Each structure stands twice: as structure tokens, then as C-alpha cells.
Amino acid sequence: xxxxxxxxxxxxxxxxxxxxxxxxxxxxxxxxxxxxxxxxxxxxxxxxxxxxxxxxxxxxxxxxxxxxxxxxxxxxxxxxxxxxxxxxxxxxxxxxxxxxxxxxxxxxxxxxxxxxxxxxxxxxxxxxxxxxxxxxxxxxxxxxxxxxxxxxxxxxxxxxxxxxxxxxxxxxxxxxxxxxxxxxxxxxxxxxxxx
Length: 195
Hints:
By secondary structure, the protein is mainly beta. It is built from 2 helices and 10 strands; from the N terminus they run H-E-E-H-E-E-E-E-E-E-E-E. Mean pLDDT is 80; it is low at 1-37.
């Protein structure tokens, strides 16, 4: 089954590239992606702490352009949840934790993806509210501080299984993931203004 999936992925990626078609343009990183001294980033966990199983992670092409009329498939990206996220309390989450990682084959300004790097998605406190922070491993990259919406389901809802996905809104991609044992978090990955 794994070989079958791999052959489908290779077919979808290699054949269009070999056909000479030009890939979509992704633009440049926003100059608004700047360092935020007011938000501290938690320690980056080792790779073994992320779940790469297809049932609990996601991979797909992220959309670039101005949707719904002028957009096209962009870089292929994977999102993997932090395995232990579903066992945390809300207080533990609020203390600041990396909840997922994103790996992409190409740049994508949202979510601070520079291409062929790993981006760690953390939920941290900024003042009295929670925010998402997307930290790239690309040399010279600065953190992107974005919104986070915490959706409460009730303690034990995830039964110890963390999940992360890319979601599609009416016009754009979002990240979604388990951020504690009774809640999930969703982010648009767009820059928040300083306050």
C-alpha cells in the first residue's frame, strides 16, 4: 500500500514537472515577517516527538494567488502533530508549546515557510491572549506571529491521539491541530499587528 501511495505521489509530482509546465509563482516573503521580542518561543522538540502517520497528519499542495478566481496549487507541504499534545492540559498548552511542524518543498509566505525548511507551530501567550508563532529553520528567518482560535471540545475529547491538518476556508489555507486534551487550535498564518 505504501509503494502504491508513493507511486501516485511521484506520478503527480514528477510528470507535470517533466512536461515542462511552469510551476506557480509564490512571490517573496513579506517584509512584515519580523522578529517579535515580546513572544518567547518554546524549545523545539526532537523529530521523534512528531507523528507522521497518514491518519493523523496531512499533506497537500497549498494554494497560491488570490482565491477563488486567481489561484493555483502551490508547494507540496506536510503537517505533523506533536504526539503528546492530546495529553496536555489547557494550562500546559497556555504555558507555550510546539503543537505541530510543517515541512514544504517550496516557499509559501503564510506560515513562514521559506521552502525546503521545517516550520514549527507553537501556541504561546502574548499578554492576556494566545497567539500562534511559526518559526522557520531557514537561515536568517524570523518568527511570524499569527492568530490562533482555540476550539474547546471537553477534557479527554481526543483520547490521547493528536491530529494536525491543513484546512480550506472560503479563500485560503489554514492550519488546524490538537493543542491539548480537550481543544484544537486553528490559525490563518497571517501576521498580527504589534500591540
